[in-house]
Amino acid sequence: PTKVDRSAAYMARWVAKRQLRTGPSARGVQRIGVAEWGLQIVGPMHAGVLEWSSLIKARETPEFFFFFLSKVQAVFIPKRLLSAADLERVRVLARGGLGGNAELLGQ
Questions:
Q1: Burial of 66 (0-12, 13-18, 19+ CB in 10 A)
Q2: pLDDT tens, 22-70?
Q3: Are the C-beta atoms of residues 46 and 106 closer than 8 Å to each other?
Q4: Alpha-helical runs (H) found in 1-107
Q5: Per DSSP, what are the bridge partners of residue 68?
Q6: Partner of 75 for a Cys bridge, out of 33, 66, 67, 82, CB 3.0 to 4.6 A?
Q7: For 104, phi and psi rounded to 5 degrees?
Q8: Which residues contact 23 (CB under 8 A, 6 or more apart)?
Q9: What per-residue confidence (pLDDT) applies to 12?
């Protein structure tokens, strides 16, 4: 990853932490589904769908999957919550939906 990519991931983590501290809609259980058509996000105060075409890239780090809507706004999934089969399924779906814009660790 380039310095810019690392900066974007750092910024996304910072924004996520800030949202948790200051935004009531980010509190509570968040459910994120990954499908052939994109992401489905459901929380205590919101529900929504993001088609792959609305995302600019996906990036996998050792701890998270990030799905970027902009350079600094991302939906993230902590990998510790996923089984090995789920990790691979997310990779397959991200590659299918974003092609070369999916920067993933697993082969």
A1: buried
A2: 665 556 778 999 999 999 999 888 899 999 999 999 999 898 999 999 9
A3: no
A4: 3-22, 84-98
A5: 57, 74
A6: 67
A7: -120, 150
A8: none
A9: 65
Look at phi and psi of residue 77 and say left if phi exceeds 0, alpha if psi is from -120 to 50, else beta: beta
Tokens of 68: 């970027």
Q: Closest Cα partner for 11 from 55, 51, 66?
A: 66
Name the residue among 63, 101, 105, 74 with its Cα closest to residue 8. Answer: 74
Question: Sorting pLDDT into bands at 50, 70 and 90, what band is 71?
Answer: confident
Phi, psi of 10 (to 5 degrees): -60, -45
Please identify which residue in the block is written with the tokens 């814009």: 101
**pTM of the model as a whole:** 0.77
Token readout for 41 is 């996000």
pLDDT attached to residue 82: 96
Which one, of 19, 17, 32, lies nearest residue 77 by Cα?
32
Q: At residue 34, what is the residue type? A: V
